Amino acid sequence: MPRRAIFAIASWFCLICACAAQTLSFPELTGRVVDQAGLLDAAARASITQSLAELETRTTDQLVLVTLKSLQGTAIEDYGYQLGRHWRIGQKDKNNGVLVIVAPGERKVRIEVGYGLEGTLTDAISKLIIENSMLPRFKAGDFSGGIKRGVEDIIQVLDGGAEEWQRRAAQAYAPDAAPPDAFIWPAIVIVLIGAGLLIGCAVMGGAVCQTILQMLILMLVSGRRSSSGGRSSGGDSSWSGGGGSFGGGGASGSW
Fold first, then answer.
1. Rounded to whole angstroms, how far apart are CA atoms 133 and 121?
2. Which of 105, 40, 36 is CA-nearest to residue 255?
3. How far is the CA of 218 from the CAs of 162, 196, 204, 211, 223, in angstroms?
């Protein structure tokens, strides 16, 4: 094998190892409300927990609220879907999990939506809830009020109000258009991956390139079919994630 091909493969291997080395630590799943940042009092935690339990009883959808001390230098979008997979929120056969993530240290909030609910709790609806119900209260220092209002709105969507919320989102954003920045990062990632593959093919030749492509496809398929990490319980010991998975659907905001 030519030296340049060996060098290119070694570079790809080092890049993959570097990405794998950036591991994240996740809080323990102690119940439907994991208030690691301490933004809620006992009454608020109990009230939200009850509402989320009742939602799951009615719909089987699993909605979890988590506040974080730190995102560990990771974008909230990356942390969110990895946390959802680690906790396995949502039913395994439905992938109907939702995470509400608040990171006050970085002033970030995200609604992370499982595969099975992306058509109901759309990116546009998630963005609307964050911008209208949560961010104004967070900016005023009312974290408890913003969290409770956001959770109530999500429950309303999942309880059968999606059509009305879609109408509101259509009024807030251009019809048939995604919320701002929805396609920017996916487009950048696709362009970078495509450019890298083209360069790799030009350097290494067709046979080696085909092998790498097959390996990447297998990695992507296995990644979508599996979830990372197990389940744990604590304050709500009778409850845990149901085996659901996430693929990055949802919306984020900052204040």
1. 15
2. 105
3. 35, 18, 20, 11, 8
**Pairwise CA distance, residues 235 & 99, whole Å:** 18
d(CA 119, CA 138): 27
Rounded CA-CA distance 77/150 in Å is 18
Please write the tens of the pLDDT for every residue from 119-155.
Answer: 999 999 999 999 999 999 999 999 999 999 999 999 9
Closest CA to 151 of 137, 140, 163: 137
Q: How many CB atoms lie within 10 A of CB 72?
A: 14
For 17-30, give one letter per residue: b (16+ CB within 10 A) or e. eeeeeeeeebbebb
Residue 179's pLDDT band (cuts 50, 70, 90)? low
